Structure of E3 ubiquitin-protein ligase RNF139:
Amino acid sequence: MASSQGRLGQQALAVLDVALRVPCIFIIDAIFNSYYEPGPGWAGTAGSALFRVVGVLVSSVVLLLSQKALFKFYTLFLAVVLGAAAVLVNYHATSHTDFSSARYKVALGWRNGPTLWLGLATVQLAFGVAYVFLLGLRSSLAALVVLDVMVPVWGLMMELPPDVRRLVAAFSGAALALNTAACLAARLKWFYYSCRYVYLLVRHMYRMYGLQLLLKDTWKRIRFPDVLRVFWLTRVTAQALILIYVMQAVRRESGDATGGYPDRNSDTQGYLLSWDVLWDVTSNLIISGCDSTLTVLGMSAVISSVAHYLGLSILTFIGSTEEEDKRLGFVAPVLFFILALQTGLSGLDPEERLVRLSRNMCLLLTAILHFIQGMTDPVLMSLSASHVSSFRRHFPVLLVSAALFVLPVVLSHALWHHYAINTWLFAVTAFCVELCLKVLVSLTVYGLFMADGLSDVLWEKLDDYVYYVRSTGNIIEFLFGVVMFGNGAYTMMFESGSKIRACMMCLHAYFNIYLQARNGWKTFINRRTAVKRINSLPELRGDRLRRIEDVCAICYQEFATSARITPCHHYFHALCLRKWLYIQDSCPMCHQKVNVDDDARDRDVFSNNNGGYAPPPPEAPAAPPPVENPPADAQPVNRAAPAVAAPGTLAAVAGGLHHELLEDNDSIEYDDDDWVVQNGGTPVEEEYMNDDTDSTDD
């Protein structure tokens, strides 16, 4: 119970912290978006600029305050506001109100009582008590402050002459102003030390951890996404209420002008719920919701929240637990903000801004669908590789994959039906076609793995088929990347060029063209080299294979048709050894280099994986050479220590398949140094060789 109350208290403080920071964003937004008519001469221009700078600086400082300092600042600010309100009420009452005629016959039980000054006295007493409480004044001084606030009201009660009442109100206001100034001056020392502490803390964090960690810590400490989200929603809600009120007023005026008196209920239902009015209100709200950089940031924060919960829902539906797949709430707002900056969204005219925003939303939708496909692909590969037969596990992922194929088709058809061909429509269509291609590749590989799971024998060509399918998809995606680079270059040169667009094109050329081409070529070279080495190794078949009476030390399965012998006299399945050679050029058992020389080709002697040597075949003309001493760093060879884990762990291996540049799970390469660093310098054949194509039936 106590812990739940503590959590509720912390949540209430967090909500209050966010609510108190939102006005700073409103002030900064108003300063940047408001037009001030400068006064005559340079003095007016300098004064306007100074006002803007001071306003932005003070608002930024308040926005970055710690929670404790923020609460204290607002306490002092509210006290000053209450004191100013008390002074203004006294001045207005003593200068513009005639209390001798302000009487009401029935008020609070008294007949012919002066109700106006009684209500005024209550309000001033509340102001005085709240002012004293917020400033934390001592009891004696607090009584004097409350008395000072109430003195002008007593002058009204005694019906003093107007000049005397105004003089009393002036002295009362001056005394309250002096007290406020003294209280604030007494806290200047606290303000100085607070600013110094913040400065030293920021400098220490910058020197110790760098600027990136400092910005990240500040971002989380002030809950900036929540602040932006509340700012944007509050702004849009207020504008919606104002628009609805204005439309209702215009409707009534138009009815009065025609001499009609429409019913209020029918007017409200017929006017406010019509589709034309709803579209006008929504479009105006959307246009005004991205008219500045801060409002674009606020809309990005709202998109972040929506995308975050959408990603969590999809992950829960498909049964994925990958932490990296929960980044949709970060990727979506970043893409939206980059698109807004790239197209200059906030600086466009209202009508053009609405069109540009809708186009950006279409591009963002395709990017989100691509990310969701990256979330579903590892789950598909995991289920197919681990041969899970539960329909309940397969159906959600297949349903999401089908939706990812249908949605781009529907979107492209709708856009081509309503818009003429242009560079934007071409880009959206290319992204949709690329997404459909990715889905087809994932489903094809999924089908191959499922077919392998239903088969009773080892499908040796499965690895090649998976590589061919994924390579074809990667080549087409690479071509799409080149075409999109050309489309972006045309847009930058002939439509809307900008520095941000140029930077994004450079990033696209590096990540989506250069890196993808380099990794694809490296994969191809590694596979070709591995195939050449496998084909150069001696092969055992027939009676010679049956005399081994052992299993492959990689997949831990018996040799059905053939086996390959390494120069160090260890033998494996050709498929298993080839996949090992994708990683490094060494024997999985003793880690000697797999280099075939002429002497090894001429030898007919072979050993089993237990360290012993089988007798030579009867037809062998040459006697077996003496046993060579194994190298000092070779690990003991034991059939009880296979180089593969159980098939149930294939889901963990297949979980890394969502990487776009390394989609072929049989084509992951590491340098020798990277392999040692990744695995702590110890041989870890089990970590890799448990691949999708090595799964067997239990």
User: Anything to note?
Assistant: Confidence is low (pLDDT under 50) at residues 100-113, 263-271, 598-608, 610-698. The beta strands are 104-107, 110-113, 539-540, 563-565, 571-572. The chain has 24 helices and five strands. The first helix runs from residue 2 to 33.
